[in-house]
Amino acid sequence: MARICYVVCLCLATPWVCLRLLWRGMRQPAYLRHWGERWGFYSRSSCDPASPPAAPRIWLHAVSVGETRAAEPLVRALLAALPECRLLLTAMTPTGRETARLLYGDDPRIQRLYLPYDVPGAVARFLDHFRPAAGILMETEIWPNLMFAARRRHLPMFLVNARLSRRSARGYARFGALTRPALASLAAVAAQTRSDARRLMALGAQRVTVCGNLKFDVAPDAALLDLGDAWRAHVGARFVWLAASTRAGEEDLLLDILRRLHLHHPEILLVLVPRHPERFLAVAGAIRAQGFSCQRRSQGLPEPENAVWLGDSMGEMPAYYRLADVAFIGGSLLPLGGQNLIEAAACGCPALVGPHTFNFAEASQSAISQGAARRIADADALLEALRELAAAPAAREAMRHAGLAFAARHRGATKRIMRILAHAGIGHPAPNATPDADA
Questions:
Q1: pLDDT one-digit tens code per residue, 353-382
Q2: Which domains does the chain have, with CATH numbers?
Q3: What kind and span of H or E run contains 179?
């Protein structure tokens, strides 16, 4: 009965979903493409008839950019363990789909598509069209109709790099009649931390192993690090403060901090990189409205007269981290849950996080305890931390080394997840992998 009510609600919401796609498409035209895929309609050629009949198709779903990047070590491990297999990579956002294109180019073993909405007919068309041998979902993609359809087809489904905050767990618990059977149907769950594992098991997951976070296994692209070094050479001795993956409402606070910093340190450069590309234009307008001289990444490198450099590019975050003396991790100054600080640590960039990091609670706390990051209570505390670190290169260097050590210490999730998949008949066990290791 719960699933019937869920389906009815989805059907009633369909007109609103279409209007939302149109609205987003006005700001980001890529949302207007491939509409058929969102409802489970695919071209005959997408079956990839050139594939050998015996080649298995492994399906991996990563909802957007962060999940797609996190999945990279696992994708490459699967291709290495199963060189004859075909990988079907699905996303829900144009930026996630484009990220997969940037990561894997035109590799003929990989297809990039949208996963349809969780409507029974659309899900059925997707599964019947591609007939994957196994499905792998990244992080917290729990869709009741999808899981029900997979179970009816005896399709083994895995949830990997799984995370579930306290807030999300409370939300899922309200719909236990839907969540519990969906989680119970999973062949295995690879949780990031023990806390994630406990919350998932409390909601109905039954085969849960703590494997760590795949994001620790993502090595920064050497070419992007070199690009960051080139940017640094251009900028020179200016203190560079990076605001990474900022969210709506934070930019005004950060620009106010910059104004106060400039009273005594007018040479400071703020590199501002909004999380969502559809907001680039609005953020550029906000910078100009505050009276700052701004250069956009798409227009060139910052000049001495520029107070702000707007990072309006995709896929270059390691270069931004390499350029910066210190980074504030966005989404944490307001109650938005925070963004991933692991990439900053892996690039050797000291990180500052706000009070709201519930999306990455254990990683944030671990980085802080190991000296790779600092927590600030509010905008005033962020201002003071920036003033302190701008005058303390030795402290920044200590945080840089602590970040590199923190990132190295937590690697290994890919091997553990590959062992779990191998036990289910997908791929081969990775050597020296320990699937029950703590994150």
A1: 999 999 888 899 999 999 999 999 999 999
A2: 24-39+52-212+412-423 (3.40.50.11720), 223-409 (3.40.50.2000)
A3: helix 176-184
